[in-house]
């Protein structure tokens, strides 16, 4: 477990060293009456893939898939106050010829908000809220002689995670932020109809709808231009529960790589890995890759 954490942190350190050559020309504190204290920017993307086979001796299966994503930031900086907000939403499905069901390839809703009051040049007293869930139902799939079957396992707000805490925020600029919260409450919400014996459903007791934890949360946001038209966005969250098994650190790491072709077309790679022993005793991994049509705003 410790080796996995060190591996993730080492990756971020390597990226940090590569970013030393990147020159930042805009200061987040350089706010005037003309520009205003708010900075808003976002990107909507659509990835689409379709494959058809006919008499293809090498084998293949007809399929169609699509993924719709939104990444939006709205940040406030004025005087000693800083308020950073990020919204990520994405949904994707795939349908193959031999499957009875369309299946999700992506489904997430993520919102993070950090309020800071300046303490020194780059350090802030902070309070943060983080919320995560999914949009639609998730299923467990089985197959037998009668065909393919599915059983509902998750749904909107089941599970849903809410973090809230206070601590200190280090903010070099809009592209590098580290928030340390030694007092963080974590709430896990579920539909009690799904709960299982022995707290096997995301750590929530059978017949209950919520699990409460108190612990330490560390989060990092790091975005950099590696080379021209290639951008890396890293989002890392670590959480340790003081009340139970503090050595089992929850990990949520997201890497979004955007390789720009032109104003409207990019090649996108989205990678995410999660370790949460209340949900699954091992690493969960999600990866989406494709050419996307983009709209920036």
Automatic annotation (TrEMBL):
Keywords: Signal
Signal sequence region: 1-19
Pfam families: DUF3078 (PF11276)
Keyword Signal: yes
Protein name: DUF3078 domain-containing protein
């Amino acid at each position: 477990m410790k080796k996995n954490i060190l591996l993730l942190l080492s990756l971020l350190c390597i990226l940090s060293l590569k970013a030393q050559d990147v020159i930042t020309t805009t200061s987040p504190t350089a706010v005037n009456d003309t520009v205003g204290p708010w900075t808003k920017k976002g990107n909507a993307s659509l990835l689409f893939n379709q494959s058809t086979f006919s008499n293809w001796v090498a084998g293949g299966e007809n399929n169609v898939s699509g993924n719709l994503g939104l990444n939006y930031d709205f940040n406030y900086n004025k005087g000693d106050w800083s308020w950073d907000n990020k919204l990520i939403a994405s949904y994707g499905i795939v349908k193959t010829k031999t499957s009875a069901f369309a299946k999700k390839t992506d489904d997430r809703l993520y919102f993070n908000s950090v309020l800071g009051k300046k303490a020194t040049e780059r350090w802030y007293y902070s309070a943060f809220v983080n919320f995560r869930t999914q949009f639609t139902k998730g299923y467990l799939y089985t197959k037998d002689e009668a065909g393919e079957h599915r059983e509902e396992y998750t749904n909107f707000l089941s599970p849903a995670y809410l973090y809230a805490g206070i601590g200190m925020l280090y903010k070099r600029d809009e592209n590098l932020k580290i928030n340390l919260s030694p007092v963080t409450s974590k709430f896990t919400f579920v539909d009690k109809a799904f709960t299982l014996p022995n707290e096997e459903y995301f750590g929530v007791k059978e017949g209950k709808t919520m699990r409460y934890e108190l612990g330490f949360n560390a989060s990092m946001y790091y975005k950099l231009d590696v080379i021209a038209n290639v951008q890396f966005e890293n989002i890392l969250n670590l959480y340790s529960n003081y009340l139970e098994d503090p050595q089992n650190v929850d990990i949520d790491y997201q890497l979004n790589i955007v390789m720009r072709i032109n104003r409207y077309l990019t090649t996108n790679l989205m990678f995410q890995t999660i370790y949460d022993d209340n949900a699954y005793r091992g690493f969960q991994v999600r990866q989406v890759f494709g050419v996307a049509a983009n709209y920036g705003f």
